[in-house]
């Protein structure tokens, strides 16, 4: 997230000065901001003091961190499910490559997973290194 040019105390001071009587366009010209920015500040920080504002920012950062942890855990669970499906398909149907596995999961089972994601997991499982054995004719040994 982009860091603000203004500190918490400067934002609160600007809001209080407008409450006292200075006009919004004057304040915006003085600070070099747009009126939309000022109104956004007022909607977000109006009625707060500096400690409360800093506490709110700490809580927002904590919330973002917890949200990231939740999303990562959810993705890990989905990736494990994809890996499980790929292993089951390639164990049962040894001649299926990525294309058939993807089409089966997408069209038959109805999963909405992206082909790039499935292929990434397919490669991580090293299923793409499957080598077909050569078919050779057995030589008849004459005695």
TrEMBL record:
<dbReference type="InterPro" id="IPR002514">
    <property type="entry name" value="Transposase_8"/>
</dbReference>
<dbReference type="InterPro" id="IPR009057">
    <property type="entry name" value="Homeodomain-like_sf"/>
</dbReference>
<dbReference type="InterPro" id="IPR052546">
    <property type="entry name" value="Transposase_8_domain"/>
</dbReference>
<dbReference type="Pfam" id="PF01527">
    <property type="entry name" value="HTH_Tnp_1"/>
</dbReference>
<protein>
    <recommendedName>
        <fullName>Transposase</fullName>
    </recommendedName>
</protein>
